[in-house]
Amino acid sequence: MESAPRYLDILEILARHQVEHIVVGGVAAILEGAPVSTFDLDIVPNPAPENRQRLLAAVRELEARYLDPAGRHLVPDEAKLATLRMHQLLTKAGPLDVLATIGKAMTYEHLVGRTHERMVGNLSVRCLDLDAVIESKEQANRDKDRAALPILRRTLELKRQRGA
Amino acid sequence: MQGRGFGQDGLLYHQPMSRKATHRNGHEPSPPPETPLAPPGSGPDDALILWMLSLTPTERLAVAQGFVDSTYALRNGKRS
Fold first, then answer.
1. Which of A2, A33, A73, A136 could bond to A103 as cystine, CB 3.0-4.6 Å?
2. Distance from C-alpha of A33 to C-alpha of A149, rounded to nearest angstrom
């Protein structure tokens, strides 16, 4: 039986392994105050080799395997993390997407200047700013992205009005 | 009080929720303000957004976690 994603558990393990990453996508939008839902955690890690090693240790602790339509048991390794652009993982704490880019080609280096540290429980989480979340979803332009855009844009408007 | 729930399109709507979001430390986020509800289909619900903005990031994540917990409980045929 599939268990519900536990966002905080994943974030805690990433933090314990000191994985430098940006929380993007739906969870970033939620942390920024948008009332939307999501069923996975999306991150963009720092692609530096030493960070990739930390990420590998974290996903191993999370018992991650690739979401594989053929049902094969494929696990992340250093070569896959170094070469593949998108890792749709199933972990013991729920789905985790590890992305090299979001939108059209927004990399960690492009994004890191558009983030803020948010305290979530005892964790400091680097979270993509809402305007950048909106931009990434405009660029991705999938049905689910377009569906969420009106509420994301209105949330941003209200945040700005409040000076938040 | 009427609760809030998420629709299949991933947006929150005014629907009864089966369970309140709860922090790991047992605290619950503050309840939504008693504001008039926007008519269905009239666009984003400002009252709901303002309520979400009034929460801390920890509380916001707890709201989202409560929703996924409830959804999975329903999917798995359990009471949440």
1. A136
2. 14
